[in-house]
Automatic annotation (TrEMBL):
<dbReference type="InterPro" id="IPR019200">
    <property type="entry name" value="ATP_adenylylTrfase_C"/>
</dbReference>
<dbReference type="Pfam" id="PF09830">
    <property type="entry name" value="ATP_transf"/>
</dbReference>
<feature type="domain" description="ATP adenylyltransferase C-terminal">
    <location>
        <begin position="212"/>
        <end position="347"/>
    </location>
</feature>
<feature type="domain" description="Ap4A phosphorylase 1/2 N-terminal">
    <location>
        <begin position="15"/>
        <end position="189"/>
    </location>
</feature>
<protein>
    <submittedName>
        <fullName>Bis(5'-nucleosyl)-tetraphosphatase</fullName>
    </submittedName>
</protein>
<dbReference type="Pfam" id="PF19327">
    <property type="entry name" value="Ap4A_phos_N"/>
</dbReference>
<dbReference type="GO" id="GO:0009117">
    <property type="term" value="P:nucleotide metabolic process"/>
</dbReference>
<dbReference type="GO" id="GO:0005524">
    <property type="term" value="F:ATP binding"/>
</dbReference>
<dbReference type="GO" id="GO:0003877">
    <property type="term" value="F:ATP:ADP adenylyltransferase activity"/>
</dbReference>
<feature type="compositionally biased region" description="Polar residues">
    <location>
        <begin position="62"/>
        <end position="80"/>
    </location>
</feature>
<dbReference type="InterPro" id="IPR009163">
    <property type="entry name" value="Ap4A_phos1/2"/>
</dbReference>
<dbReference type="InterPro" id="IPR043171">
    <property type="entry name" value="Ap4A_phos1/2-like"/>
</dbReference>
<dbReference type="InterPro" id="IPR036265">
    <property type="entry name" value="HIT-like_sf"/>
</dbReference>
<dbReference type="InterPro" id="IPR045759">
    <property type="entry name" value="Ap4A_phos1/2_N"/>
</dbReference>
<feature type="region of interest" description="Disordered">
    <location>
        <begin position="61"/>
        <end position="97"/>
    </location>
</feature>
Amino acid sequence: MASSSSITRLSLDLPKNLPALVAAKFREAKHTNALTLSETIVRTVRTRNVPFLLQYCPSLSKKPTSASSKPQPAHQASKSSEAEASNRPKRVNPFENPSEDLFITDVPLYSPQHYLVLNKFPIIPEHFILATKQYKPQTHYLEKSDLEVAFAVLEAWEQENSRLFAFFNSGDNSGASQPHRHVQFLPVGNMAPPDTDWKPLIDDLGRQESSGVPFTWYSAELPRGTLTGERLHEIYLSLLQKAIGRVKSASADQTTPAVDDADTVVSDKREGEVEISYNLAMTTSRMVVCPRLKDGSSFPLPSGEMGEAKLNGTLLAGTVLVKERPEFEAIISNPGILEDILSNIGVRNPDTIHR
């Protein structure tokens, strides 16, 4: 592929009928129990007239702590911790040797640097992942090839009159769960019940309709038909550097907006460790970067206990997942909780501070 050519499914030599290939692999994996699809209960909750999908997944509910556990003397606790640490199994990298039952295809087909694999524990059907074949850190800058292939996958769905939402979590406060570099994809048509008025938040980010979103984001429209890998990577770097500048300039308590010059690029760094946590989201028409300061937020429940919501890059699609029924019911009853959660996980959107 010439470096100046625009990104398409054909230019990157992706498999034909990729959406059908993913759907068939998902059906097979579900039938053979190679993956577990967890059911969710979904409601639409609005914050400042912006619709968010609130998802409750009962199977993710916290497991009760053993009642037999008792506090140990300090010297015993120390020995116990050391023993547990030495006996703890080494964390398995699920992307090092992907299961054949979940593996979809190498991408591109010629000289691949990435592959596609199904999510083993999805809550949305046909949730799949683009991972690097060789280990690369999730916290490093994305490379041109990462973004090229991700965009080509998005375009493959559009060519079939369908849509994907792509997201990437990087850093301790982003909702990231694996250190091996990977971008995730969700079919938009599978994300919400058909009778809701919800649409992906990313579609409105950058427009007036999204001015009530209480966290800061940076958005760029992607040119249609002429987008090269180089241009896509430059857009990513520009958005990310703006996000880094905003985090650096934001006050510690976030009670005042960041300074105006945070919207300028703060360095020309293009590789290595990214110094902030962030989420990236992408469709064929838009890319968004959201700087993150926390991976989640706690909130009081009517019972007097504390609930919690942890968010990853799907927040840029306009979805929030909770694991407990009381958390779900509390947010439905008081949508202001959702605004507080969204305000706490990133740099506060200065347009919403005094509303």
